[in-house]
Amino acid sequence: MRYTHMGKILLRWLSYWPLGPAILALAAAAVAVLEQLAPWHRPWRTDQGDLRTDVLHFLGNVLVSQTAVVAYTGLMDLRGPGLWPHEAPLWLQILGALLVFDLGLYAVHRASHGVGPLWKLHAIHHSAPRLYWLNGQRRHLLHEMLEGLPGMAVLGLLGAPGPVLGGAIALVTLHLLLQHANLDYRVGPLRHLLATAEVHRWHHQRRWQEVQGNYAAVFSFWDHLLGTWLPVRGEAPPDVGMDDEPDLPMDWLGQLTWPFGRRARR
Ligand SMILES: [Zn+2]
What we know:
This protein is an all-alpha fold. It has 11 helices and no strands. Helix 3 (51-78) packs parallel to helix 6 (141-158) and helix 4 crosses helix 6 (141-158). The radius of gyration is 18 Å and the shape is globular.
């Protein structure tokens, strides 16, 4: 494998504590400050009883994803190179891994809108009463693991190195900050390439029937290619949440146990 000196340093540390979480914390702080300066919807700038729950989801899910990268790296150290193009430039390897991983996220997300038990896990993400930097990670711990599994399995079979997967997951995590950000930004025609906030807000409308599309996490062209692009015009209204799950609790522990309770299984 040919890497520059900087690339070697990155490879050694990219997927490990504490650099990954430190970069993420800085990026999160930057988006949080920008939201105060240029909000898309002003009332979403303040805590609506969701902040504590979102902080706990955020910490739990980052812990899961970082642990998964470390475990994956250990496993990949034990196996051969596989079909993965190890000689390609690092950025190209990370982009390739991101495409594979993102398609896995799309597949699980789409299935989660059609399969009952998966929906109960995913409904927690849709319960957010506003969209802001933190609630891209308002997701059930089990759903977090399920979402990452297909991409990691394919990349593992191909023989992608752990730091390459770590780089791809870091980009996904950073993108989720911006995808859910309460930031007044638009990207024009690039929204057909990247699933930015203006695309994703349509996926958080209050009625279940209205949110069966725009499933992409990073690359919105998956929705175009696979027929799930929502044919909407203009801006989504700031009317988010999930009317169809009125029993869903708003506290962290309640949200983790709710999919397995009697009410959720009816
Ligand atoms: Zn969804």
